[in-house]
Write a structure and sequence with these properties.
It catalyses: Hydrolyzes free adenine bases from 7,8-dihydro-8-oxoguanine:adenine mismatched double-stranded DNA, leaving an apurinic site. The protein is built from 15 helices and eight strands. By secondary structure, it is of the alpha+beta class. Strand 6 and strand 7 form a beta hairpin.
Length: 371
């Protein structure tokens, strides 16, 4: 392990080198860059959590068209937010985004808090996200430590151990603080914190990648412990691979005329708060669900093609069943319109529907004619 004095020397070299590199080789034209607007930077930081830039860009742009500022977001409905977020995954982010906007309006008179510590008190904003917002918007000397930055520091400083463990995280946070540009350096370069923070993100995303890191292009390679000891493939310490389980889920695609039955999923768990199709673990259980929902009408269940959907911890095998209620049948009564709806197919865009389920529903408009 590298002695602490050597790590101190290493840390001092990071900021000046990284800032120079970011100016010439970093990413400088992303939609949320070249602005000090906390709303836009906060939105991008939340969307970018565990999500790639290319995936985020169209979502970010559509979101801003509907909610151009934090007040419009605070006044919007959660359903609208979830609809715009559908397909981006990790849906608790969208729920926290909405809650955060409301808190900013209520507690901060519609303006974002002026420092990282205050930002961290808001829903969905952790220490690293708060630091990124404060660095980009206010030039605050605040350390970030997202997943990409953990990987950079583990390799650069030669840190072993699970990067997600408490002990390793404490060590990484201490090094992240140590590596910050000095106050005197920032005084001479007012954009220093923004460049440094963006540089860390760029380095982890484009050079010091999880597999096949491009060490020859890395501005920090001459002082990198992993490069010097030939451990770029073994650092960070790999997590023990968990066995991915498969889970069968039978879903009910129940239609009536040109409408489909949707229900809102629970507040916690997979696809929390999204509108989806009723589901059950087995075919007999799904038939019971149909009997309950369709009341006295008992349409025939027709199997559709099964497909798999990858989630973070397991693979979901979705087995859809179609049930078409007769056009002249009386529409089954809804007991709670906040949790269940008959939705016209042309109005699906207003509802937040899981990415795995939406094509299934939309597909019926291509194969069936509704009168």
């Amino acid at each position: 392990m590298t002695p602490s004095s050597t790590r101190d020397d290493q840390a001092l070299k990071i900021a000046p080198t990284l800032i120079r590199w970011q100016r010439s080789a970093g990413r400088n034209h992303l939609p949320w860059q070249n602005t000090a607007d906390p709303y836009r930077i906060w939105l991008s930081e939340i969307m970018l959590q565990q999500t790639q830039v290319a995936t985020v860009i169209p979502y970010y742009q559509r979101f801003l068209e509907r909610f151009p500022d934090v007040i419009s977001l605070a006044h919007g409905s959660l359903d609208e937010v979830m609809a715009l977020w559908a397909g981006l995954g990790y849906y608790s982010r969208a729920k926290n985004l909405h809650a955060c906007a409301k808190r900013i309006e209520q507690d901060w008179q519609g303006s974002f808090p002026p420092d990282s510590r205050s930002l961290e008190t808001l829903p969905g904003i952790g220490r690293s996200t708060a630091a990124a917002i404060a660095a980009f918007c206010y030039g605050e000397r605040a350390a970030i430590l997202d997943g990409n930055v953990r990987r950079v520091f583990c390799r650069f400083f030669g840190i072993e151990g699970d990067p997600g463990s408490r002990q390793t995280l404490l060590e990484l946070w201490a090094l992240a603080e140590l590596a910050l540009p000095s106050s005197s350096f920032i005084e001479t370069q007012p954009d220093g914190m923004r460049r440094y923070t963006q540089g860390l993100m760029d380095l982890g995303a484009t050079v010091c990648t999880r597999s096949r890191p491009d060490c020859q292009s890395c501005p920090l390679r001459t002082d990198c412990t992993a490069v010097a000891t030939g451990r770029t493939d073994s650092l960070p310490t790999p997590k023990k691979r968990k066995i991915r389980h498969e889970k069968d889920v039978h879903v009910l695609l129940m239609t009536w005329q040109n409408a489909v039955y949707l229900h809102r999923r629970p507040d916690k768990g997979i696809w929390a708060n999204l509108w989806s199709l009723p589901d059950a673990p087995t075919e007999p259980d799904l038939k019971k669900v149909l009997t309950t929902l369709a009341d006295k009408i008992v349409p025939r269940l027709e199997p559709m093609a099964a497909f798999s959907h990858e989630l973070t911890h397991f693979r979901m095998v979705i087995r859809p069943w179609r049930a078409s209620l007769p056009d002249d049948a009386a529409l089954p009564a809804l007991t709670n319109t906040d949790r269940e709806q008959w939705v016209k197919l042309e109005e699906l865009g207003r509802y937040g529907i899981p990415a795995a389920i939406r094509p299934l529903i939309e597909g019926i408009t291509q194969t069936c004619h509704f009168s």
